[in-house]
Amino acid sequence: MDIFGIKALLIAALIFIPFEHLFHERPQKTLRKGLGVDLIYVLFNGLIIKVAIVLIAANTLDAAAVLVPQSMTQAVGGQPVWLQVAEIILITDIGVYWTHRAFHEIPALWKFHAVHHGIDELDWLGAFHSHPVDAILTKAISLTPVFFLGFSEASIALFSSIYFGHTLLVHSNLRIPFGPLKWLIASPQFHHWHHANQREAYDKNFAGQLPVLDMVFGTYNATGNKVPEKYGVDDPIPSSYFGQVSYPLLPPDKRSDRPVPSTEA
Ligand SMILES: [Zn+2]
Ligand SMILES: [Zn+2]
């Protein structure tokens, strides 16, 4: 069993590295700054998150067995797989949207999410670069209704593959014209603008897969065809994995060897 997800990582690398080389948004080395730290995120963080998802699924399924009528779980799990996957994408992305927005708007949560925004050179591997608290809370909130309602294993497995590919795509250093599809499916440009370190981009484009959620909830950043000037965040995020994981848990003067930006005018 590939508990570290090395097979999926290699397949993704074989797809994204050549495409990013050929169709990049901006020139960037494959062996870029922070690559080693991101590999730790993939392998070590990925394992922690998988264990958390198994625990969330087991506990939710136990609760559902008592609380949800069997007729309902059978009706949900008996729908065609394509319809279940569409419903799962909508349900999970509403969870992702509001969890993500809370991580931006609540200062105690932002410290955890700032780690994801600390990526200066955005590419497909950056999709893995999230603090475990950020990743696990987002998964718990977005996936619990899916396990609770009784969606079938095949639908959840297909959704997981689609989500995995999509989250890598939106972080990738690719310039792909989505045309009118950009209103329906989150594009790299949509999520790149979420990562832009520019005032007009702050607290916009929270959805993971469905930009329509940002339109409905008033946070859509219509960016036209522009490319962000820079990525990253002003918070003093440390450069090492353990520095980043401990960053939100330490008092401000112990968080980083990087200088804290002055708040005085
Ligand atoms: Zn964010
Ligand atoms: Zn991101």
Describe this structure in words.
57% of the residues lie in helices and 0% in strands. It has helices at 6-22, 35-67, 70-77, 81-105, 107-117, 132-149, 153-171, 188-195, 212-216, 241-246. Helix 2 packs parallel to helix 6 (132-149). Mean pLDDT is 90; it is low at 259-265. One zinc ion binds at residues 116, 171, 191, 195.
* Biggest sheet record: none
Order of helices and strands: HHHHHHHHHH
Apparent shape? globular
The proportion of residues forming helix, as a percent range, comes to: 55-70%
Supply Rg: 19 Å
Tell me the domain tally. Answer: 1
The count of helical stretches stands at: 10
Structural class: mainly alpha
Bound molecules: zinc ion
Low-confidence stretches at least 5 residues in length (pLDDT < 50)? 259-265
Q: Between the first and last Cα atoms, what is the distance in angstroms? A: 55 Å
Mean pLDDT: 90
Taken as a percent bin, the fraction of beta residues is under 5%
Total E-strand runs: 0
